[in-house]
Amino acid sequence: MPVNRNAILRYKTIDHCLCNRYRKWTLKDLIEACSDALYEYEGIRKGISRRTIQLDIQNMRSDRLGYNAPIIVVDNKYYTYEDPDYSIIHSPLTERDMTELVEAVGVLKQMTVFPAMSGVSDLVSRMEEQVSMATGKREPLILMERNDRLKGLEYVPILYEALKNRCTQEMVYQSFKAKGPSTFLFYPYVLKEFNNRWFVLGQKEKSRMMNIFALDRIQSLRSCPDVPYYKSADFDAEKYFAEMVGVSRNENEKPQIVKFWASKMDSPYFITKPIHHTQEIILQKETGETLFSINVIINRELMRELLGFGAGVKVIEPKPLAAYIRKRHQDAADGILSAS
After folding, report:
1. pLDDT digit string (tens) for 33-44?
2. Cross-strand bridge partners of residue 223
3. Of 9, 120, 168, 200, which has fewest CB within 10 angstroms of its CB?
4. Residue 116, exposed/middle/buried by CB under 10 A (0-12, 13-18, 19+)?
């Protein structure tokens, strides 16, 4: 069973007391010290029972937490450490601690592929070496989605610093549809990862519209510290992206209720992994088909998500979206590659 915060605070308080060799500690003294600590750090006024502290001492003495604390009672009254140099903060890691540390290092190692994590890559490598020496090599149990060859990752640390320091950027950018690149001043607001691609949201100079740019389409970036940085005071990045699936939207577009049927085979995927946080089940038939609704801005990422289920999803509302999905399926059946 996991140890809660209050118990950890009591263990640390008891340890702090017993490390103080200039005072003799009775059980009453330890109870008062723990009560004071809980009030100071957690605002808990309720007193601690004698039985609770006795159990804490028992747990600290045992191997349950990996402490094996050498707590003794002197003169049948005073608690102290038999080893004057002992402290729980110096206790070795348990086997369970090591297992959890191995997994944590594994997750961090997966993240260092991104340039934004380059500052801790050396630390992670040293941690991995130390853990490997202590436990021996083992295969990773957690693999995170990543693409080492993804274009544009080199701009993540540049844009991160620009965001942190509120620095205007000169961007050279060419979208998939553009015939050539364009150069403009840009105020970055936030970095966003979606579907294993990175994007930056912000505003162009002399424009109050929000623009989203894929990092893999950026050709160059140059910091312009002498150009004043602008950011809308009422912009909320979390709210902006919470209204849609993906990253793209038209200016002033509002969320709409989207209703769709999912087949018996595909319904469990929507139930266990909703495509949006507003997703609700409207109706579920005995045959297994389920009618869902979401309240989102309709964009190309949503359309691709729904199209990806093929015949397993039938869009009911709104009518224009339903017609678009139906036409794309028909085009695919007819072998026609129409531009979206």
Report:
1. 999 998 888 888
2. 169
3. 120
4. middle
Across-strand partners of 280? 293
pLDDT in tens, 53-78: 999 999 999 887 778 899 999 999 99
Closest CA to 21 of 97, 72, 62, 55: 72
CATH topology for the 256-334 domain: Alpha-Beta Plaits (3.30.70)
What top-level class would CATH report for the domain 155-242?
mainly beta
- Strands (DSSP E) contained in the chain are 71-74, 78-81, 169-173, 182-194, 197-204, 211-214, 218-223, 256-262, 280-284, 290-296, 313-317
| Domain 5-90, CATH class in plain words | mainly alpha
Q: How many of the other CB atoms lie within 10 Å of CB of 296?
A: 23
User: Is the whole model's pTM more than 0.85, yes or no?
Assistant: no
| Neighbouring residues of 82: CB distance < 8 A, sequence distance ≥ 6 | 70, 71, 72
Asked if 5-90 and 155-242 have one fold, the answer is no
DSSP 244: B
